[in-house]
Amino acid sequence: MIQPLRLGLLSMLPLLAAGSALAQTAPADGAPQLIRLAGKPGAALPGTTLRQLPTDSRQLLRETLGLRPSDDLRPLRTETDERGELHERFQQYFKGVKVEHGQYTVHRAAGVLSGEFKPVPAALSTKPALNEAAALRAALATVGARRYMWDDAAAEAGLRRISQDAKATYRPSGELVVVADYRQNGATGPLVLAWKFNIYAEEPLSRAYVYVDAQSGAVVLQDAIIKHAHGPVEALPATARPVARPAAPRGVTTSATATFATRYMGTRTALTDLFNGSYRLRDYTRAAGIETYNLRTGTNQGTAVDFTDADNNWTTAEFNNTAKDNAALDAHFGSQSTYDYWMSTHGRNSINGSGGKFINYVHVRVGFDNAFWDGAAMNYGDGNTQFRPLTALDVCGHETGHGICQATANLVYQNESGALNEGFSDIWGAAVEYSVDPTKQTWVVGEDISLNSGGLRSMSDPLSTGVLSPCPANYRGRRWNFGTTDNGGVHTNSGVLNHWFYILSVGKTGTNEQQQAYAVTGIGIDKAARIAYRAERLYLTANSDYRSARMFTIQAATDLYGAASPEVVAVTDAWFAVGLGTSSAAAAGTQAQCLPDDAAVLTASASAVSLCAGETLNLTATAAYPTTRRLRSFTSVALPDASTAYTAVPVFSTTVVSGTTLQHGLETLYRSSFADLQGVRVRLSHAQPGDVALRLAVRNSSGVTTYVSLATALPAAGSTAAANTLDLTFADNASATLPATMSGSTLAGTFRPATALGSITPGTLVSISLEAQDGVAGNTGTITSVELLFRRLATDVPSVRWIGPGLDVTGATASTQPAGPAAGGTAVYRYTVLASDPFFGCTSLQTVDVNVSQPLLKADALQADLCAGRGQAFGPISLRVTADDSIAGQTYRWTGPNGYAATGKRRSTTSSIGGLLRYTVSTSTPGSNCANQQQVAVLARRPVAAAPAGLDSVACAGGNIRLRSRPFENQLVGPYQFSGSAAIPDFSAVGVRIPLVVPGTTEGFFDLRGIRVSLNHTYVGDLTLYIIAPDGTRVLLSRQNGATGQGHQNTLFVDSVGARVLSNGASPFAGSWQVDDANGFAKLRNTPMAGTWNLFVVDGGPADVGTVTSWGIVTRSNNTIWSGPNGLTATGDNVLAALPATAGHYRYIGTTTVPGGCTFRDTVDVRVAPGSEWRRRQSTDLALAANWTCLPTATTDAEVRGAANAQPLLSTGLVQVRNLTLRAGTALALDGGTLEVYGTLTLESGASISGTDGTLSLRGAAVVLNAPSSTALRIPRLLVNLPAAADTARLAQMLFVTKALTLQRGILKTQASSLALMTGGTIAETADAYVSGRVMTSGLVSASTSQDFGGLGMSLSQTSSNLDVSVIRVTDQAIGRTPARTSIRRYYEVAYPANIVVTATVRQSYRDAELNNLAEADLQPYRAGTLAGPWLPQARTLQNTSLNYVESTGSIQGIWTLSTPTAMLPTRNAATSFSVQAAPVPFGASGFSLSVQALRPERAASVAVYDLMGRLLVQRPLTIAAGLNTVALPEAGRLAAGVYLVRVVLNGEAQTLRVTKE
């Protein structure tokens, strides 16, 4: 895009067209722009192919302006002009906050975009540091009024009465906006967050939008709402805000035609209404009404009354009274005439364009010398010292014009935009007056009301002193107000627009203040008004200045009359006449505003004249000004005749007047450079130049003025009958001196001054003036211009800038990679280099044209949707190039899936795979080799292969069945979900990226339904959410919606008609919402879908945090319609259908219809079984409902049929069953989850249960476990939780528990079998819930530790050595017989490796129910080798009757139980038939000897020596005689030092000794 040129550049040039409007960075200063779209016929240059523009205007703006995620343009209004063309205006927002004055309009018929877009810094916070109340206080402190409208109870009551709103008030409320800080460079000042208030002050009168910086509290702009006809007025009384009255008055009213004896327009007819017997100045035939009220020199509009008349003949005698009531007749007639003008000429229905009411207030305050528009009504004073009553027709049109501007361009009432606001009002005043009475002074504003002058302003001669307010006729020329008074000169600088309109209407020939000749042919006031109105209504925006007004009026004329029409020529030349831009006849490159002697010398070149799209183009420029810098004064100064004093013409002055110096600040650069003054040029006309002396007056910073004589007397003229013209340059290096006489009436040349310029060194300059003296009487003349010729300083250089398609770079060099024409072909791209004078704003330019090529290439497939046939094969795919350059020799290369490659414009291929198939065609232009490529996508659908034959679905009678249609080949079905916690970085431009991988092939596809997001954030209005597909395609989900809400709660972002719009909603968002992306999900149509998708969440504001908890891709299912038994109809690719109540075979048919007219059929055969049956169907999961004919319950029976590679597995979940049968060969793996059995668990031959971590839960009142072998049941966890404590579960076969046995309620009886608790397993029992019968386990009893065998009830602790011990616990069985010779109903069998004697602490636990009527306090441990005894009593070392255990110490091998001495178990004292001692102790290398005292001889005795690990070291038989025996063991001397156990056995009795070797 070629950017329109702005202040300091070349905004006065006609718009330069490019091949296309390309995305570009918003202008740095946010100034108004005009962008021409190449998609408009006629907008492209020769050889350019037009691109297809987005049909959505919002998207068009986003693409063209290159907006960021934080930027938004929201629809503001759509207008249809008189040509039937649409104009869509959009309001700018940043992070959800309105950007004041930021608006853009799409003019599709004209093929242009216009507006101003403010480049808001990304770091700008949208959170105010100042609250609304504090900001209002700051605003009121700045306004500084003594009284405000809301302080006036009468005004407030009047407002409520007029508005018929009991809550209406003048008290302002704040609105947060982003606005420029007008204190710094006006509309281009830095942007700030501000509170906006409508503040209406009563004393003194003012009304303005006041903007308060929401961070600092400073007032950055006051935009006046009240706009006066004559500039600022001091200390005006307040008026209440008028509010539209009802469309029709109360009571009975009749429209009537009146006769008015007006004050200024003579006798006129007008419409009034008859109400309750009197006629009022009200007309309800036009719009919502025209009402004229008498404010009775007051200030409160709520107290205004009607003007009335008895006979509707409003005569002079009645109304030309001392109160000047006839002024009301002019106001009423003026409003009717103004309404008629706008309706008939422009088709505009009232001020607001939609039939709003005209309201006039006459007799506003006492002696009020002004009129004003207050934002809703016209207010007219009665005049005083300067004016008569201000209700003249052109003033009425003027004030109404402010209302028109408010409703259209809404120009800010400051500086140039404010001057345009006033200028347009003057234009409409003239146009209305001309439409009613062309004989009046159309081009003088306020001629009827002025008391002491010819009018208020002159549009034909703005500089005229014959009017009250002389104005500039030239842009930034004479009388231009450079200061801040009158809001930056809005009533003065408006003269330039006035004069332009006058010249455009009637034409003019002359020379402007830039000394440029112009000739304009007028087009008439009607055409001129049409152009002005179209520009104001449709193109101008709030901060438009004169340069943009020129640009927009040229465009408006082009819209109405054509690009090369006389009207466009006239508009262009009229602007040239007032000093803006070039004339229509100027060739390209002509200087704009810069005079020829000031023009920069420019050269421009490009690295290539032709290139391919995307290649690098280097642009180079040189720019230099002439070596002489000319400081000029074009002010004409008349020389007094016969004067003894010199007349000064100031040329150089460092004094700032009206906001600038004489040379626009250039003096600061040259104030120390008098030595560089090379010459002085003076132009004058005089009847006798010989009477004139010239000198320079040079004043320095010390206040000393030095004079340099240029000529003591100019050459004398031979004739004084006419003026003689001289153009003289004085320079020290000139070779000629002034002649004494002139040979004719003209003289031009360069001459030496009378005193050398270099003869003085004044120091730092303050001012330089040319002074002239005419010392002889009789002849007069004028100095017409003066130029100081300085040697240009090295620092006085132009500002250079390159602009062009997608380019806007400051500097002499630039690089760009131009994109090709969107639709292919070759386009001429024009790049323009601008050299701007930084002091005077004039600009020079040069252009470079470059041919940018990109082959035209469009392609498609005839079959965008392809379906497999009956044989599952695909038909042909017809690929074709539909648009190209058709150059001889041009080739086309196709590539695609499965290595497809072909050449040609039309190809046919057949795919062997289904899915989203992408074919790429590429081409290059012969000669240039510029390449382009297009992608063609074909969605080929083919269902995956059917299920294996003979494997029917099985379900239960009366249950449900899941009907699933086959997915298509490479169809991705999800779900795809991220769950976790991803922190959102605060105030980060990067944000957080959360990837989500969609597995699949290149051809994978899904039908996207939406994107689901859940997140929490303390200020969700800061957040922008978007996704990026695997190929980089980006879709905006939400741009800073929701303000202070908490986030998104399972929000589904969709792209569907009727979905809720995020910007209209409030956070937290839940349910479905339309994505913010203008193109929605359509842009994902051809993107690869398998790969990594990314969700980005960007926080655009500080001080708030949050996290993303989940996001996912939601896909749509196939649209399958099912039919089946019992009249079934259902829709979906996964539906639940009811089964018949009768067992048998049934068929269900699913029909899927897809785009392309293809239909696929799925058949599901179902065998309805009478009960629950598990068989692997979808997986090995025992809990998966799909594997069961119907899920079993606690009250139904089931069977499980496993097979090789199809065995059941329970890893999670719960399966409940009453009676469960595992059929032969079934191996159930309990790796997790719970299997609950309420009846009988039966394993057939070869069936088994094992696993890693699952639970078998026994829940029934009489559960029985039957297994075919002792190894069939290896349960990780066994849980017994029966309905009642007395209930019993029975184990009919050996059962192994590998991890845990838990009894919560009820009894588990092992019957004749055993329950084995594997090493490391645990058992948890209660007093009432326990195992009855045998439980066996084992464990390592380590030295100095305790082993409780998983909680079996016995614990052992010993200090000798590590020992593997096995324990069998038997409960509910006593030893011996009752009532005598018995034990408790529990005993333990302890065993460990033979030939080891271990002494340990043995703790035996018991339940109270096992005491067997024995006295608990008398319990004592007993040990025996067999159940038959003999039982050896063991000394009780510890007893705890609360915790139910008894401890003793002794040898641990054998059978242990608890009894009492009175119970009389069969007992025998230990080893009473012999005793044994060892000597010496300790022993040494000779070993040791045993002394054995025996009661009787024993031939089968033995002795053995063990180490503490139980290993046998020495063993031999003994023969023992009755009496004392000595047994020597010398072989023990070979043992290593340590402790050993010696065991002697006689007659089955044994004794053990501990011996030590040193």
From TrEMBL:
Signal peptide: 1-23
CDD domains in the record: M4_TLP
Keyword Translocase included in the entry's annotation: no
InterPro entries from the UniProt entry: FTP_domain, Galactose-bd-like_sf, P_dom, Peptidase_M4, Peptidase_M4/M1_CTD_sf, Peptidase_M4_C_domain, Peptidase_M4_domain, Secre_tail
Domain P/Homo B: 973-1121
Origin superkingdom: Bacteria
Keywords from the named record: Hydrolase, Metal-binding, Metalloprotease, Protease, Signal, Zinc
Pfam family, one: Peptidase_M4_C
Family: Belongs to the peptidase M4 family.
Protein name: P/Homo B domain-containing protein
Species name: Hymenobacter glaciei
Lineage, top ranks: Bacteria, Pseudomonadati, Bacteroidota, Cytophagia, Cytophagales
